[in-house]
Amino acid sequence: MRHLLEIDDVTPTELERIVHLAEQPSADRSYEGLGVACLFEKPSARTRNSTEMAVVQLGGHPIYITGDEVGIDRRETAEDIARTLAAYHAAICARVYDHSVLDRMAALDVAPVVNLLSDQAHPLQAIADVLTIRAELGTVEGKIVTYVGDANNVTRSLALAVGALGGTTRVVAPPGYQFGDLDVDRLASAGVEVQFFDRIDDALGESDVLYTDTWISMGQEAERDERLRAFEGFMVDGAMMDRTVGPDGRRAIFMHCLPAHRGEEVSAEVLDGDDSRIWPQAANRLRSARGVLSWLREVT
Ligand code: CP
Ligand code: NVA
User: Fold this and answer.
1) DSSP letter (8 states) at residue 100
2) I need a surface site. Which of 62, 95, 99, 266 has the fewest CB within 10 A?
3) In this predicted model, what pLDDT tens digit does every residue of 80-119 receive, in sequence order?
């Protein structure tokens, strides 16, 4: 049985297949008469709506379940929840605080498990991101995606997806917020190219995409003051965009997984300006979810 907890759960060829499925208009109704569990321990606008609508497009029936309702490892174990949901559903999609909960559910092989965001990874976002880069720039191969900010769940999945399709990711983060050794090893063993920078200006040249995400991910709210101090000078603003020019002299596009915080990690002028591709990127979340769910029916 196959699962998608992180981008490196699939080979580059499989990722290309998922991207292909996502990009094509589809008459796939392979979830006809089937349920898909959509379990959320954290809030969501894009992921919940795009996943539920992807299930509907594929002929299935999504059931939204809150973390409070099932109480993962409080009301019953993650394993018992997975076994229960697998009795009714063709797949278990879940957004969790602790990535190991997804590992434990997937290890049972009772239903395909899809990560809808964990503290470690956000693969459906990364697939939407590469769909956006392909739509905007024609290809991911040979492109440089520069991520400025907190090296987090979104960054990790983005780097793996961009790398699997032949692009390079640059990550610029302040001390303490860069990827650790484990990440560097994992990225290397996936064979993807990632470059690390401390100084923003060193990373901007020849970048095709400038990407950022919140400095305070869900679950890190208690660290807010400390993080705002650490990320001083890291806001993507108009002056930074002006310095971010691709190898062909073209201005970089700006991407953000959303939700965004104007005046923190990105200025309003950039987020809402001409370089921004945040709305096509958000729209691609539906294609991403549909591509992954279709692919799971092909391989399961
Ligand atoms: N980008 C993203 O995952 O958004 P939501 O948290 O609103 O689902
Ligand atoms: N890094 C953010 C992404 C939100 C979609 C978080 O985990 O909260």
Assistant:
1) H
2) 99
3) 999 999 999 999 999 999 999 999 999 999 999 999 999 9
CA dihedral 7, 12, 18, 19 (to 10 degrees): 100
H helices of 138-199, where?
153-164, 181-189
Distance CA 115, CA 123 (A): 7
Q: Provide mean pLDDT across the span 36-57.
A: 98
Collapsing DSSP to helix, strand or coil, 66 comes out as strand
Amino acid, res. 251: R
Q: Judge whether 138 and 202 are in contact, CB under 8 Å.
A: no
**Residue carrying the six token digits 């609508």:** 53
Any atom of ligand 2 within 6 Å of the Cβ of 294: no
DSSP state of 98: -
Q: Taking the alpha carbons of 139, 141, 146, 147 in that order, is the dihedral positive or negative?
A: positive
Pick the residue whose CA is nearest to atom 3 on ligand 1: 47
pTM here is 0.98
Ligand 2 within 6 A of CB of 213:
yes
Helix, strand or coil, per DSSP, at residue 130:
helix
pLDDT in tens, 217-272: 999 999 999 999 999 999 999 999 999 998 889 999 999 999 999 999 999 999 99
